[in-house]
Amino acid sequence: MIEYRSIGKTFADGTEAVGDFSLMLPSRTTTVLVGSSGCGKTTLLRMVNRMVDPTRGQVLIDDVDVATRNKVQLRRSIGYVMQHAGLLPHRKVIDNVATVLRLNGVDRKEARDRSYAVLETVGLDTSLATKYPSQLSGGQQQRVGVARGLVTDPNILLMDEPFGAVDPIVRDELQRELLRLQAELDKTIVFVTHDIDEAFLLGDQVVILRQGGVVAQVGTPKEIIASPADDFVRSFVGLDKGHRRLHVEERDGTRIVVDATGKATGVLE
Asked: Is the terminal CB of the chain with fewer CB neighbours within 10 Å at N or C?
């Protein structure tokens, strides 16, 4: 379980990225932080693994303040996936995936064996293991990034707009792959996006943010659509434009809530 307690962040130039933020993120669920640029969502995500330290307040994992944890050890215990995959261009795919295992002292053979297994888990042919990142498509690179985030079998996976740099068709494939992975692996996922449709599709809990990390509304996709907190939320999710006439479709064996434009807005259990 991740908990933010009265978190605030003011950067050295005086910019207040987050004012006063408190929230509980349940274990083994996906919490999506969604909002426009400058709302503090990435800052909040990076506080979990101490890539950003708060100016005030606490972030706790299973009731332990992350500020008491060694930064390097903490980061190696948490999966992290970023927008452009962040792969090392001079290292082959298999070595990119095995990076954290090797840093944690796992011997080369075991690290590679585990890396091959996780490549299969994220839907990549292991024949790609000996290629370099530049030889892969954007979607394949992102899958490698997800594999690297999962290879240590972390309880927590942080995903910072991981599908924002790929085309819509590939993005749809990656979103469906993440839903499959979460159903199979049962991680605590913190996912950042600016896309409300992506948030509604992937999130068990969706957090809509205003500027400065101010929470506009927290809830399931169904709760937010049924009872938007105010006009800001109503506009942000598209209810003011009449785009949220919902129905249910079955896709790949999963019941998906779809709006009038055909975009998925949630998953039914």
From this structure: C
